[in-house]
Amino acid sequence: FSCLVLKTFFKTDYRGIHDFVYHSATGTPLLDGRNASVWADRAATDPALFAQSLPFYSIRPLYILLIRALSASLHVSLFTAMRLISVGSLFGIAGLLYFWFSSPLALVVLCLPPIFYTARLGTPDMLSALIVIAAVFVSRVLRCPSGSVLLLLLAVLVRTDNVLLVMALLFIVVPPRIAVAFSALSCALVALIHWAAGAYPLPVLWANNLGLRTIGPVSIYTINTNVRMSPTFYMLGIRQGLRSLLLYSIVLPIALLGAVAWVRRWPHRDIAAAALFSVAARFFLFPDLQDRFFIAQLLLTIIAFRQRACEFQRTDTYPALSLCASNRS
Fold first, then answer.
1. What's the Rg (C-alpha) of the chain?
2. pLDDT of 219
3. Considering Cα of 171, then 173, then 175, then 180, what sign does the dihedral take?
4. For the residues of 30-86, what is the DSSP string, one character each?
5. In whole angstroms, what is the distance from residue 154 CA to residue 150 CA?
6. Residue 326 pLDDT > 90, yes or no?
């Protein structure tokens, strides 16, 4: 992401970007596990290979712009800006949950290992979760569908793979006809971002992210864009995804919490259904089940699991909400 900021705003050549970023990262936790894989070790010394991997990250335009803006305004390094975004998003989620649940116990949720670990990374995952939770909060608590739709579209600009969750949430935020229109708009945004960024097709993502480099002519020393999807290739990826699902993924807790909320017919179980739909659809499209990809879904199912979540009939406790309600009346 630091390299993409430099490439976008300063038009530096790839070798200069590579040398500057790796020199800046030396001695930081970002390179603690650099020698853990042949791919990462080779990319640290080969600017051409490193440049090949940039399209994997260039499809996060809003996150890249935010890194640049934060770095320039606070006069901090790009690496510090990335960490500030993740930590700031964690505190933003903490504030929303505290206000939503009216209990400090809700903040214990943020101490869950997947959430706490993701907040330490320089990735857009926590920012993505914050925007999604804020969109549902604006819809259910502030009763402002237009603001919720705007936030959901911003979530697509942060992570294009949010489009599945965004489409599911749109159908519980606005009427179906409007949801279809904005779903089409979100898909068009994803297509435009991928086209402008020169993103790799889905089989290439499978081959590199899932470690399926033993299939076909894919090498661990280069990114082969000639990979084609085949039934064998697809089933091997699904099998690997199922193995990670059973061993260490947070997808199973999401499914269990959502199922309990739905069976018990608790309020706002539709939020859990949207989370489950996005998880299932993402698994069959791209079965990489890293925990950080599902932070928003985990938080949504926890919200749905709470039987009294979002029940703000006692608006006298919240003067701001009472004033908003009276103004809308």
1. 21
2. 46
3. negative
4. GGTTGGGSHHHHHHTT-HHHHHHTGGGTTT-HHHHHHHHHHHHHHT--HHHHHHHHH
5. 6
6. no
Q: Model-level pTM? A: 0.82
pLDDT for 27 equals 52
Token pair of 101 as six digits: 């649940």
The residues, ordered by sequence, that sit 6+ positions from 214 with a Cβ below 8 Å of its Cβ are none
Contacts 24+ apart (CB under 8 A), 91-96: 92/130, 92/134, 93/126, 93/129, 93/130, 93/133, 93/299, 96/130, 96/133, 96/134, 96/137
Contact 14, 48 (CB under 8 A): yes
Whether the pLDDT of residue 113 is over 70: the answer is yes
Q: Which of 131-145, 238-252, 307-321 has the highest mean pLDDT?
A: 131-145
Most confident of 30-44, 161-175, 216-230, 296-310: 161-175
Phi, psi angles (nearest 5°) of residue 269:
-70, -15
* Torsion region of 197: left, alpha or beta (phi above 0 gives left; psi -120 to 50 gives alpha): alpha
Task: Give the Cα-Cα-Cα angle 154, 157, 160 (nearest 5 degrees).
Answer: 125
Amino acid at 90: L
- Asked if 8 and 68 touch (Cβ cutoff 8 Å), the reply is yes
Q: Which residues lie closer than 8 Å to 303 by C-beta, 6 or more apart?
A: 100, 133, 136, 268, 271, 309, 310
> In angstroms, rounded to a whole number, what is the distance separating the alpha carbons of residues 178 and 304?
24
| pLDDT, mean of residues 275-299 | 87
